[in-house]
Specification:
This protein is an alpha+beta fold. It has a single domain, classed as Transcriptional Co-activator pc4, Chain A. The protein is 26% helix and 39% strand. The protein is built from 1 helix and 4 strands, in the order ββββα. It has a 4-stranded antiparallel sheet with strand order 1-2-3-4. A hairpin with a 7-residue loop joins β1 and β2 (13-20). The chain is flat and about 50 Å long.
Amino acid sequence: MTQVIAADSKTPIVVGISEFSGKTGLDIRKQYFDKAGDMKPTRRGIFLELTNGKGDIAAEVLEAALAELRAWEYSQQQAQGDLDGDGS
């Protein structure tokens, strides 16, 4: 399953599972539209191998990224004096 996240109308971001160099992984990639209007991948993105025999790499990376995002959001709210996150 592939999901398209419209960061903006010119460069959507596609998230999906794909194969690269014989490895299966999570691919998060910016796309562009060619002259025919078809979406094509750019080089800008990241491919996270799903497993390496020692565990689920993609899940670990995404969990760490989500924790960093939550910490950043909290620090932004704290800087604005809004610790409840409700804008009041």
